[in-house]
Structure formats: C-alpha cells, structure tokens
Amino acid sequence: MGVxxxxxxxxxxxxxxxxxxxxxxxxDGTPPKPWFRIQGPSDASTLWYAxxxxxxxxxxxxxxxxxxxxxxASLLEKGWEEVPIGEIQPEPDPN
Length: 95
What we know:
Blueprint: E1 4-7, E2 13-15, H1 16-21, E3 35-37, E4 49-56, E5 59-66, H2 70-77, E6 81-82
Antiparallel strand pairs: 1-2, 1-3, 4-5, 4-6
C-alpha cells in the first residue's frame, strides 16, 4: 500500500498514491493541510498493519500498528478506531 495520510479535520485516511491520483497532492507526494502523514514504514501493507485513528483535542491523529499483537489491542482499548480497508481513500469531490 505505501504511505498513509489522515485528514486532521475529518479523520479520512488515504494513501499517498490515492491523494496524488485524486489531484490532492503534487509530484513530491506531500498533500496540503489538513492532510498529515501517519508515521510508519513507507511500504506498509494493510495485510500486516492496521490503520488507526483517534480524535484528540479537536483533531484526528493516526497511527499504524501490526495486527494481532498486544500493542494493537492496547490501542483499541484506549479508544483508537481501526479504519476499515474499504474506507482508505480520499472523499469524492462533491463538485
């Protein structure tokens, strides 16, 4: 999959490639605010990693966690939400 970003306003999650293909980011791969890169390996796959988000102090933050390990379960217990794979994409442009 690659590099993941979270929209800090809405909690929407997308890959860098999806943001580029949607015209949201440019060639350097850095999308504008409110998109923020989720820290993790640049070749992360949703086969092994879960993408999680949580609203903190009025903004969404994101993280990656290896599935089925204690850390993943701990994050879920602390209120993190796993983003379903089918929802990892930019919101369609309403225009």
